[in-house]
Amino acid sequence: MSGEPRRLLPSPTERLVFREMTEDDLDRMAALLGDPEVMAFYPAPKTRAESAEWIARMQESYREHGHGLWIIETHDADFVGDCGLTWQSANGVPVLEVGYHVRREMQRRGYATEAARACVELAAREFAPTLLTAIIHPANDASRGVAENLGMSHVGDDHAHPWIVRTVMGMQVPPA
Ligand SMILES: CC(C)(COP(=O)(O)OP(=O)(O)OC[C@H]1O[C@@H](n2cnc3c(N)ncnc32)[C@H](O)[C@@H]1OP(=O)(O)O)[C@@H](O)C(=O)NCCC(=O)NCCS
User: Fold this and answer.
1) Per-residue pLDDT tens digits for 73-93
2) Which atom of ligand 1 is nearest to the CA of 116?
3) Which residue's CA lies nearest to atom 35 of ligand 1?
4) Looking at the domain assignment, is residue 3 inside a domain?
5) Does 107 sit in the ligand 1 pocket, CB within 6 Å?
6) How far, in Å, is the centroid of ligand 1 from the Cα of 146?
7) Residue 80 CA, closest ligand 1 atom number
8) pLDDT in tens, 13-41
């Protein structure tokens, strides 16, 4: 027995499937996280080496928690981005967060909302009742739009971040 948690995965949606990230995704993830528009609300776009670290962190999260950000792709295996559930900290308190990044050419087609809804359903099956959050740069309207589509509302502000006050969107997820 390894003692590692059961590996979770959201159910496929009408247009998307989820899978764990591997080293083979480095080209795709480096293109996504290296795009200055996709990373506009991060300190800087990620280098290829930082994208490799991102993948390694997600693999560590799968092993430690059973979940993380997963690759989202179409049923034809076209890369869309990543989306998933991670543990984050808001004002020093651990919270479950749904996160998402969609490559520029695929944005504004409802993919982030569709993928995030599958993550809410997973949270309802595995973690409910729970608070589910999306911790967002205050100027990130697209991210806030996804959170609002999920039914989240502004539940507070995170003052623990070194240089910005982040908006904490959240919703109570009842058991499925
Ligand atoms: C946030 C992000 C994942 C949204 O992906 P998406 O697939 O385009 O999102 P959706 O098509 O599901 O849009 C969801 C809602 O967001 C809003 N929205 C999306 N793009 C927007 C934009 N550029 N400006 C303003 N609002 C926007 C809309 O309200 C939209 O809902 P509607 O189409 O029903 O009106 C994408 O913009 C992205 O990858 N951004 C960079 C990465 C990032 O900031 N991630 C979040 C970190 S907290």
Assistant:
1) 999 999 999 999 999 999 999
2) 12
3) 145
4) no
5) yes
6) 6
7) 7
8) 999 999 999 999 999 999 999 999 999 99
- Give the integer Cα–Cα distance in Å for 89 and 1: 30
Q: Is the CB of 143 under 6 A from ligand 1?
A: yes
Domain hosting 54: range is: 16-173
Strand partners, 88: 95
Pairing of strands 93-102, 130-136: parallel
Q: Does residue 2 form part of some domain?
A: no
* Number of domains forming the structure of the chain: 1
CATH at residue 29? 3.40.630.30
User: Which tokens hold the place of 150?
Assistant: 């999920």
- Give CA–CA dist 174/176, Å, rounded: 6
Task: Answer whether residue 7 shows pLDDT above 70.
Answer: yes
Mean pLDDT of the chain: 97
pTM for this model (two decimals)? 0.97
Distances from the Cα of 11 to the Cαs of 36, 39, 98, 111, 175, in angstroms? 30, 27, 15, 14, 16
Domain membership of residue 5 (yes or no) is no
Helix spans in the chain (H): 26-33, 48-65, 111-126, 141-150
pLDDT in tens, 117-174: 999 999 999 999 999 999 999 999 999 999 999 999 999 999 998 889 999 999 999 9
Q: Which amino acid is at 73?
A: E
Report yes or no on 155 lying in a domain.
Answer: yes
